[in-house]
């Protein structure tokens, strides 16, 4: 229900206000819309049709309005009508005395509507009292029309007499007849119309100026709010910067403390109390230092002789180094023969792989890492300097090709794969938002690590014998009569159980060739499958490819990763949407998550 100064308007007054809107000139309607309510003109041009559209919107919405604002009250007053031509020109006292006579002539709703839109608060207050009285007495006692006209005529005559302007002789008669008295300063119609137009333009300009002032005030207030927010943001940045510097200082202090603790622990571990076997070498060194040979070479020979007598370990290491040099030289000759022969024998590749494994074991016994050649250094630099996922994927594809061609030692490939995985993780964490992770890397090891860390759905299919034969340096200690048997199969399965122990949604299926089909579930998510299919080759390959084809239709969104070096299986798996993980890349995963295989 609409209100004016908190006064609730009954239906008959709302009807009168709508009549005032209907009588308002189009230019006043447009001025109100442009200055006070621009949204009312949305979709319309500021012309006669637009004014009528705004008038209809205001008329329809008047009954649902709350408090009617001053701008709309000014529009309702207009430039003519009962409010502008009569009630606005009478004082509150006159209106109080003559309201009954005005109501008898014009009707009480019309008189109350004219009083409610008056710009004087005391007049609107008078209207409020009259509305309350009308609610108590719905049929007020009003004089008849003739009496009202006669009394109003006498009142106007008295007002003219007070001003020293006696009314014409027919004034009372004209008022009684309902004819307004003639104006003493009657002007030509053209001049009067020009004056009315000027007054409307002035009011329109005043409305625009008021609207501009309101917009300027709003803009100033908004600017103040933005300035306050900026100051608060600067203060927050300053506070966060101080906290960051404090955290960095604390981190540096912790790191320094850790370095000192590690150094102290190393010294303690190397002390004679913790390592008693160091006593003899130290005694030999002290005795050698006390001697004073004439020649430095004689002193060195005596020191070597004492070392050999004291510790056979150094002698064993010399023998291993000689053996390593022979193995490396033989591997080089094999590599030259494979590269230079017109028709290289397949046997050369098998021998090269065995030499590589033996070299790796010998280096491990000596505690020496794989030497870094130019190729390794170049690829490590390319991985470290990669700026995009595509650049890193190109290096990853190159490593896959090197593995297929056996163009690099297994340990070198594993080191490069590990560097790729670390770089992928750094790139993903640095450049991908934490709330929504888009375009996740396609690297299979990254997918496995993420699935295990977050217990996501994943299917990992392993070509069992292919892995045990291809990673002989990892599983060779478990071989039986030179071949992987039950111990090696069990070790691989236990590695997968341990790897996925905290991620039950990560499923692992390990396939082996076997004439008879069977399955063994070692954990809720780890299953060992024996292919069946009678005699013949590639039975395990067919089994896990058939399973992969079956699960593609129902679990197409789940990552599926195939671990094998078989080219045909790899091609078919890729066609079905699975990711391919080379054996040496799988070895890096085992070394990180699978634990000890022995």
Describe this structure in words.
The chain is of the alpha/beta class. It has a six-stranded mixed beta sheet with strand order 5-6-4-3-7-8, with helices on both faces. The chain has a two-stranded antiparallel ribbon with strand order 1-2. It contains 25 helices and eight strands. The chain has helices at about 10-25, 25-35, 50-60, 70-75, 80-85, 90-105, 110-115, 120-135, 145-160, 170-175, 190-270, 280-290, 295-310, 310-340, 345-365, 375-385, 390-405, 410-430, 445-455, 465-470, 470-475, 485-500, 540-550, 565-575, 585-595; strands at about 5, 5-10, 460-465, 505-510, 515-525, 525-530, 560-565, 580.
Low-pLDDT runs: 168-173, 175-179, 181-186, 272-277, 433-438
The major beta sheet can be summarized as:
6 strands, mixed
Q: How are strands sequenced across the largest beta sheet?
A: 5-6-4-3-7-8
Determine the number of helices (DSSP H or I, runs of at least 4 residues).
25
Strand content: 5-15%
| Helical content band | 55-70%
Structural class call reads alpha/beta
Query: Which radius of gyration do the C-alpha atoms yield?
Result: 50 Å
Number of strands: 8
Q: What spatial form do the alpha-carbon principal axes imply?
A: elongated
Query: Alpha-carbon distance between the termini?
Result: 87 Å
Mean pLDDT: 79
């Amino acid at each position: 229900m609409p209100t004016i100064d908190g006064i609730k308007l009954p239906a008959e007054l709302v009807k009168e206000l709508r009549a005032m809107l209907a009588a308002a000139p189009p230019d006043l309607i447009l001025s109100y819309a442009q200055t006070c309510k621009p949204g009312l003109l949305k979709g319309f041009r500021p012309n006669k049709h637009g004014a009528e559209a705004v008038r209809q919107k205001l008329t329809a919405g008047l009954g649902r309005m709350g408090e009617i604002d001053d701008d709309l009250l000014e529009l309702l007053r207009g430039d003519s009508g009962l409010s502008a031509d009569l009630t606005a020109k009478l004082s509150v006292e006159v209106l109080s005395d003559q309201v009954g006579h005005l109501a008898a002539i014009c009707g009480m709703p019309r008189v109350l509507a004219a009083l409610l839109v008056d710009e004087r608060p005391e007049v609107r207050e008078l209207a409020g009292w009259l509305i309350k009285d009308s609610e108590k007495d719905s049929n007020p006692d009003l004089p008849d029309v003739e009496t009202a006209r006669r009394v109003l005529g006498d009142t106007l005559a008295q007002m003219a007499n007070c001003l020293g302007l006696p009314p014409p002789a027919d004034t009372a008669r004209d008022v009684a007849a309902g004819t307004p008295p003639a104006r003493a300063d009657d002007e030509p119609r053209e001049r009067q119309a020009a004056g009315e137009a000027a007054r409307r333009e002035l009011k329109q300009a005043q409305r625009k100026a008021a609207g501009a002032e309101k917009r300027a005030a709003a803009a100033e207030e908004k600017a103040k709010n933005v300035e306050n927010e900026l100051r608060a943001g600067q203060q927050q940045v300053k506070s966060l910067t101080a906290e960051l510097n404090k955290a960095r200082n604390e981190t540096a202090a912790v790191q320094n403390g850790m370095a000192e603790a590690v150094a102290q622990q190393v010294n303690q571990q190397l002390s004679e109390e913790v390592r008693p076997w160091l006593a003899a070498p130290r005694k030999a060194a002290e005795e050698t230092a006390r001697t004073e040979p004439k020649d430095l070479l004689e002193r060195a020979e005596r020191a070597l002789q004492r070392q050999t007598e004291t510790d056979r370990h150094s002698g064993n290491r010399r023998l291993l180094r000689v053996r390593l040099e022979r193995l490396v030289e033989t591997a080089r000759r094999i590599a030259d023969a494979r590269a230079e022969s017109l028709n290289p024998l397949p046997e050369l590749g098998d021998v090269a792989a065995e030499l590589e494994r033996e070299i790796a074991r010998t280096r491990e016994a000596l505690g020496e890492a794989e030497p870094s050649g130019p190729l390794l250094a170049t690829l490590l630099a390319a991985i470290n300097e990669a700026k995009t996922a595509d650049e890193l994927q190109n290096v990853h594809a190159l490593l896959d090709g090197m593995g297929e061609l056996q163009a690099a030692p297994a340990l070198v490939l594993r080191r490069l794969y590990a560097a790729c995985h670390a770089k992928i993780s750094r790139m993903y964490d640095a450049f991908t938002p934490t709330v929504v992770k888009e375009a996740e890397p396609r690297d299979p090891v990254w997918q496995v690590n993420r699935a295990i860390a977050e217990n996501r759905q994943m299917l990992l299919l392993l070509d069992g014998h292919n892995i045990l034969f291809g990673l002989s340096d990892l599983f060779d200690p478990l071989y039986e009569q030179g071949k992987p048997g039950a111990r090696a199969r069990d070790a691989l399965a236990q590695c997968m159980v341990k790897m996925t122990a905290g991620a039950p949604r990560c499923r692992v299926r390990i396939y082996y060739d076997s004439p008879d089909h069977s399955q063994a579930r070692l954990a809720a998510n780890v299953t060992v499958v024996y292919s069946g299919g009678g005699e013949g080759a590639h039975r395990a390959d067919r089994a896990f490819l058939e399973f992969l084809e079956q699960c593609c239709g129902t679990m197409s969104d789940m990552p599926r990763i195939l671990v094998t070096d078989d080219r045909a299986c790899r091609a078919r798996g890729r066609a079905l949407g699975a990711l391919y993980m080379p054996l040496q890349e799988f070895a890096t995963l085992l070394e990180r998550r699978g634990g000890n295989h022995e």
